[in-house]
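@channel sequence for tomorrow's demo:
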Amino acid sequence: MDNTVKLAFGPEGRGAPPNGEFVLDPEGKVVRKYFWSNPARLRKDLGELVGASKTVTKVEDLPFRFQPEPRTVASGVVKPLKLPAGLQPLKITPQESPQPYFAKLRAEATRSVMQSGRGKLYLSVNLDPLYKVHWNNEAGKVSIAIKVPKGVTVTPADMQSGEVKAKADVDPRQFLVDIGGTRTDEPLEISVTYIACDDAETFCSKVTQNYTVMLSRDAHGGSRPGIFMPRMFARVRDLDKNKDGKLSRDELPAGQKTLFIGHMDYNGNETIESDEIDRFMKMFNNGRGFQSSKNDGAR
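structure tokens (generated this afternoon):
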């Protein structure tokens, strides 16, 4: 929970990649490591290290079927904010609370905030699906109050979520504020108040929970829900210079070969075939779900 293992398997301060793969021998020595895990390549490596398996079990052979639990509460009814490019996750610490964190705060800021103290601060309040709760829009709105250290201003400092036509929903509540003043190492104090109602309609509870937010980047902050792969993947087919329908390592951008191979080479043969591109793009609505902005570099 404190990222000890993640840090041990990656560069200082950053740790292992989100889907990195490490194979250890019985003595604990790392004998294989990759930026991105690949099942076909792992099978090949284990065959070389341990020996070939007499049987091959495929996912479709397993007696399990994933069936998402249906929810009757609306989603996709709150239009997401148009956010500035280059937002970075901030270090955030929830304070002790007598009630569960049915909803959790995520904080991000433009790079200029961490460099000079001025820019945009983005806050998002996200329901935790483990609790199976929703917003009851007839009962109340989500409120945020921000207390800043001396020399710092935020506008606005007190906010409420907007009107929602649906009686209940599970969409995030988003806020975007201006922050200014001198660069500081002191935290922001943020209070979030909301009403959480369980899907079974056995309770509605008014909750106020507090966080401290540092104006410094959280190397383990990941990305917010709804952020997809870097936009460089959106035009991956344009990299096929010889138009043979597949991508060899020679066709991939210098310095990004491992990134592309790790994400898209499903069979582990160091070549990205046409069907592998199709498979990858389908995860992101055939490329239409990729985040893209003329002012934003690949992230």
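heads up for whoever presents: The longest strand covers residues 204-217.
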